[in-house]
């Protein structure tokens, strides 16, 4: 059995992840590729419960350490029960956010130590890394505006603009550090242009 490919989609708030996730899924299915679409934090019953705890803005103050550990706890469940089994069966996994989000939000946004995140990444993931990561990038104000149009904010969306500037910078740094894996796509332009750039990137995996 040929192992499936692991694709992750990343970006700040309101960059159009959901629309483009659906687009990539449809494109893969048109090419007869079995694809499992999932998300982080989440993707299993327990991990979705952890997601709920993380996004709940009415909870007690969640410490940075607790936040980081909850994210990796959810990730451990997700990898064991969804991602690994699917890849092993030859299915492709398309995941809305993964560990680059931890480098961006907890590393960049919360200013946590990168070496701590790396340590947890190695512990929880072993050798598992995405085969391809699409990073949708747009100026922070544009994304926040789009997210605002969607309605109520979760615990992360309530952060200050400076938090999202740090998130964006950390994402761009990840892309610089891993140019072979992370493909940067500018998202503040017409959807057709974004999607033709997406096809160019996805095609390289189909060969
Ligand atoms: P989403 O609503 O865009 O799917 O993401 C949920 C929130 O979780 C989003 O604000 C980013 C945050 N998040 C982290 O802070 N660290 C992570 O590792 C992941 C996967 C998400």
Give the structure's gist in a few sentences.
The protein has 207 residues and is of the alpha/beta class. It is built from eight helices and five strands; from the N terminus they run βαβααβααβααβα.
List the helices and strands and how they pair.
Elements: E1 6-11, H1 17-30, E2 35-39, H2 45-55, H3 64-88, E3 92-96, H4 99-109, H5 114-125, E4 132-137, H6 140-149, H7 161-177, E5 182-186, H8 191-206
Parallel strand pairs: 1-3, 1-4, 2-3, 4-5
This protein binds thymidine-5'-phosphate.
Thymidine-5'-phosphate (TMP) binds next to helix 4.
What would you note in describing this structure?
Helix 2 (45-55) packs antiparallel against helix 3 (64-88) and helix 4 (99-109) packs across helix 7 (161-177). With 207 residues, this protein is of the alpha/beta class. Strands 2-3-1-4-5 form a five-stranded parallel β-sheet, with helices on both faces. 56% of the residues lie in helices and 13% in strands. It binds thymidine-5'-phosphate. Residues 39-41, 71, 96-97, 101-102, 105-106, 156 line the site of thymidine-5'-phosphate.
Q: Key features?
A:
single chain, 207 residues, alpha/beta, Rossmann fold, five-stranded parallel β-sheet, 8 helices, 56% helix, binds thymidine-5'-phosphate
The first-level CATH class name? Alpha Beta
The biggest beta sheet is recorded as: 5 strands, parallel
In the CATH classification, which architecture applies?
3-Layer(aba) Sandwich
Indicate the low-confidence ranges by residue numbers. none
User: Which geometry do the CA atoms define?
Assistant: globular
CATH topology: Rossmann fold
Order of helices and strands: EHEHHEHHEHHEH
Distance between the termini: 17 Å
Helix residue percentage: 55-70%
Bound chemical compounds:
thymidine-5'-phosphate
Number of strands: 5
């Amino acid at each position: 059995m040929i192992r499936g490919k692991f694709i992750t989609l990343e970006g700040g708030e309101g960059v159009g992840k959901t629309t483009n996730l659906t687009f990539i899924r449809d494109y893969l299915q048109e090419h007869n590729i079995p694809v499992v679409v999932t998300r982080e934090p989440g993707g299993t019953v327990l991990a979705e419960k952890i997601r709920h705890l993380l996004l709940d803005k009415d909870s007690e103050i969640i410490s940075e350490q607790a936040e980081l550990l909850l994210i990796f706890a959810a990730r451990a469940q997700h990898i064991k029960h969804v991602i690994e089994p699917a890849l092993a069966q030859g299915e492709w996994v398309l995941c809305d956010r993964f560990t680059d989000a931890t480098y961006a939000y907890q590393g960049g946004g919360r200013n946590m130590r990168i070496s701590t995140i790396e340590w947890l990444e190695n512990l929880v993931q072993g050798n598992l890394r995405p085969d391809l990561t699409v990073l949708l990038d747009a100026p922070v104000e544009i994304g926040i505006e789009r997210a605002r149009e969607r309605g109520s904010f979760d615990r992360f969306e309530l952060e200050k603009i400076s938090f999202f500037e740090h998130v964006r910078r950390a994402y761009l740094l990840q892309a610089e550090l891993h140019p072979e894996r992370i493909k940067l796509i500018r998202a503040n332009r017409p959807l057709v242009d974004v999607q033709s750039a997406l096809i160019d990137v996805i095609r390289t995996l189909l060969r």
